[in-house]
């Protein structure tokens, strides 16, 4: 109880709320093409691989632009970076609403939607810099729970497209909430007075010379990449494999997305309590088992439960990874958020392509989900290896806090 009160007495709650709103609405926009792909395919017939590419391109754009926004967050501050990001997000929304009349043009819009996904690199430092290390997991988990915006996309995008008889109008309607959030964010959010000094561009290279940075990238590539990749692809999966309508497929996707979104802060909170790597060991194991179960393509109710639990593990894993990052790279959190976030985006870009390509080749989703399960198993092995290595190396440096956070014992 005392620790819970100490969290709420620390930091800056309006900023935490503003970071959440910004991340939430940006994720909604970033994830719109996932559910809409089934409806868009009625206007622009696509092969399974073309559908996968369409929903993967926003993730690729987000991965690239997170590096840019991560650098901007350190140099000009996360608040101004977020405001610029929201303004630029209006460009693909306007193009999707008024300009697109071919699949090629839609690909351009899909790539530009990545600026919304890059919000990660501004929202998390903005919130996290206000909080001490012992509360980083929960603070960044709450801000990161803005990935629940994907729920809004899967729940409403296809309904609005069906109601108005046009998927293009969904892009136009999305302008309204982003403008509202821009105003509220500008009023509530503030940069932390303890914000680290701006880093030079060359320091990206210096960070990437450290093996631990690559390890965190690998962890997040699987947890966040798995979460966002499935968010964008599951509507296609349910529509193709189980013959569900666009709206019904998106509704079930929403149910699965909720698990990953709202268990992110839970993962961060529990990682604060028992250690980030200990959480990741449990979560990668759970994700591996659930994805392997999905590969058998069981009846719809069973596959929904398995995907719900699998997404829950991946979402909580996101919070657990970012409980570890500030402890190891506290002074470079802005840069590391961009780098690690970019790696997560690359994982999310690859996942739809893996499922789409293997389905095109074998006319079955079994090979794709077996592959995803094996990737989760490989991640588990990496955590076990690094947990032992970190405990020895960080204790030898006198970094007791991070060593404790990687311990298998309480």
Automatic annotation (TrEMBL):
Coiled-coil features, chain-numbered ranges: none
Domain of life here?
Answer: Bacteria
Q: Does the keyword Transmembrane helix apply?
A: yes
Protein name according to UniProt: Nitrate transporter
| Keyword hit for Membrane | yes
- Into which family does the record put it? Belongs to the major facilitator superfamily. Nitrate/nitrite porter (TC 2.A.1.8) family.
Q: Which Pfam families does its entry note?
A: MFS_1
Please tell me where this protein is predominantly located: membrane
Q: SUPFAM superfamilies, per this entry?
A: MFS general substrate transporter
Domain (Major facilitator superfamily (MFS) profile): give its ranges.
15-391
Subcellular location, in the record's words?
Cell membrane
Q: How would you describe this protein's topology in the membrane?
A: Multi-pass membrane protein
Q: Which positions, given as ranges, span the membrane?
A: 21-42, 54-73, 80-100, 106-126, 138-157, 169-192, 213-236, 242-263, 275-296, 302-321, 333-355, 367-386
Q: Which UniProt keywords apply?
A: Membrane, Nitrate assimilation, Transmembrane, Transmembrane helix, Transport
């Amino acid at each position: 109880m005392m620790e819970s009160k100490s969290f709420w007495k620390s930091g800056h709650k309006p900023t935490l709320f503003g970071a959440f709103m910004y991340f939430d609405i940006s994720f909604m926009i970033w994830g719109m093409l996932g559910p809409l792909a089934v409806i868009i395919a009625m206007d622009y017939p696509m092969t399974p691989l073309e559908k996968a590419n369409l929903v993967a391109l926003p993730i690729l754009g987000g991965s690239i632009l997170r590096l840019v926004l991560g650098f901007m967050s350190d140099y000009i501050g996360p608040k101004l970076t977020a405001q610029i990001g929201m303004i630029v997000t209006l460009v693909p929304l306007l193009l999707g609403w008024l300009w697109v009349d071919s699949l090629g043009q839609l690909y351009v819009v899909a790539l530009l939607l990545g600026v919304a996904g890059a919000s990660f690199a501004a929202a998390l430092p903005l919130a996290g810099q206000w909080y001490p290390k012992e509360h980083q997991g929960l603070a960044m988990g709450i801000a990161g729970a803005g990935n629940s915006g994907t729920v809004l996309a899967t729940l409403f995008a296809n309904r609005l497209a069906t109601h108005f008889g046009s998927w293009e109008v969904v892009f136009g309607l999305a302008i309204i909430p982003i403008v509202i959030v821009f105003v509220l964010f500008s009023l509530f959010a503030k940069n932390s007075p303890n914000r680290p000094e701006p880093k030079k561009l060359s320091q990206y290279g210096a960070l990437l010379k450290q093996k631990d940075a690559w390890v965190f990238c690998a962890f997040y590539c699987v947890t966040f990449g798995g979460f966002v990749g499935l968010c964008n692809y599951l509507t296609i999966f349910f529509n193709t494999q189980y013959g569900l309508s666009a709206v019904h497929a998106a509704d079930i996707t929403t149910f699965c997305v909720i698990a990953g979104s709202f268990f992110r802060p839970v993962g961060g909170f529990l990682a604060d309590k028992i250690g980030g790597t200990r959480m990741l060991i449990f979560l990668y194991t759970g994700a591996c088992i659930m994805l392997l179960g999905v590969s058998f393509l069981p009846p719809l109710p069973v596959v929904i439960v398995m995907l719900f639990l699998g997404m829950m593990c991946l979402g909580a894993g996101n919070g657990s990874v970012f409980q570890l990052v500030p402890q190891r790279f506290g002074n470079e959190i802005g840069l590391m958020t961009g780098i690690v976030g970019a790696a997560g985006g690359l994982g999310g870009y690859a996942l739809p392509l893996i499922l789409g390509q293997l389905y095109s080749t074998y006319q079955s989703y079994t090979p794709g989900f077996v592959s995803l399960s094996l990737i989760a198993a490989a991640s588990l092995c990496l955590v076990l290896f690094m947990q032992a290595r970190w405990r020895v190396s960080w204790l030898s440096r006198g970094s007791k806090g991070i060593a404790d956070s990687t311990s298998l014992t309480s």
